Amino acid sequence: MESKEYQKLVQERQQPSTTGKNILWAFGVGGGICTLAQGLMNLYQYFGVQQEQAGTLASISLIVLSGILTGLGLFDKLAKHAGAGTLVPITGFANAMVSPALEFKTEGLITGTSSKLFVVAGPVLVSGITASVIYGIVLVLLQSGM
Predict the structure, then answer these.
(1) DSSP line for 78-101
(2) Nearest in space to 101 (alpha carbons), one of 119, 113, 115, 91
(3) 45 within domain boundaries
(4) Which residue range(s) make up the domain with 68?
(5) Do the domain assignments include residue 38?
(6) Closest by Cα among 42, 36, 45 to 65
(7) pTM for this model (two decimals)
(8) 116 with 108: CB under 8 angstroms?
(9) What domain count does the chain have?
(10) Tell me, what's the pLDDT at 76?
(11) Assigned domain for 82 exists
(12) Bigger pLDDT: 62 vs 106
């Protein structure tokens, strides 16, 4: 097969790029999740909750909602189209925690679900906690004059 024939074959079989569509989906869904969070925060403040606590409640609400949607199999369907739009907000973290736990639920509550709960999120938590401890030690040393 000659080079020109090969190039023609590649052109015929090449799938059109879906990058633009993927970007729009990610932006729309990610923005929708953030808009939902802001709406929840406003709702909690309307009922008299202080702003900081309202933010915490909104985050908790998104985590619970994401966990429920993951358990029902709906989160993965949304993520299939939205991509990073569902992973970037806190909903992606909740999905990363719940998904492995659901995969191993047949192994039992302790050896399956509980032990697999932190498979994906565990390394992230360990790295974050370790970094914060190191930062705290350095901060204390700098403030004490060492």
Answers:
(1) HHHHHTHHHHSSHHHHHHHHHHHH
(2) 113
(3) yes
(4) 24-103
(5) yes
(6) 36
(7) 0.66
(8) no
(9) 1
(10) 86
(11) yes
(12) 62
